[in-house]
TrEMBL record:
This is Ankyrin repeat-containing domain protein. It holds the Pfam family Ank_2. ANK repeats lie at residues 8-32, 42-66. The keyword Nucleotide-binding does not apply. Keywords: ANK repeat, Repeat. The lineage of its organism: Eukaryota, Fungi, Dikarya, Ascomycota, Pezizomycotina.
Amino acid sequence: MGFHRCAMSQTPVSLAAERGYLDVVKVLLESGKVRIDLRDDHGHTPLSHAAGRGHLDVVKVLLESGKVRIDSRDNYGRIPLSYAAGRGHLDVVRVPLESGKVCPDSRDIHDRMPLSHAAEAGHLDVAKKFLKIDGIDINSKDTDEKTPLGYAALHGHYALVKKFLDTGNADEESKNQSLTLAVEKSHKDIVGLLLRSDSLEAKLGDER
């Protein structure tokens, strides 16, 4: 019996993983008649779909099968961790980060890290998880020249901007860029927060 792909070339296991149908995923895996690492037209694997939707149990079952790559990249260079981070699924984010098999600052084709996607969407708890990792570069720029702090400022995520500043690791260039982005969107509370930053105050003071 042949197994055909569904919409956007999804296989049955990919569709079941995306929708969180754990029992169906198990049946498909136990049949031995499906490949669980096949990609759809966007390069997404079943693991990518499950991670992006926050289906923790499905993610675990797929990984326990030993037949999927936890760091598989899609056509956009994004790994499952990137989708979980961007959609705020902290429980799923913990799995690859704690596995030791995934680079936490893995970059996609736009040079964006998972932390960057979490910052844009304002997922504070996810960002905190990344910020606990030694060596994570919060000043890393993507192809649009934006840092994670810049994305948080642009989209008005006050608590997240404060968290980045509280680390003491945000450089002056990132702070100044973030100030400009916050001004453009009229996020006055974030503008005030950035202006209270010591290094930024020093720079502005030098220009007066």
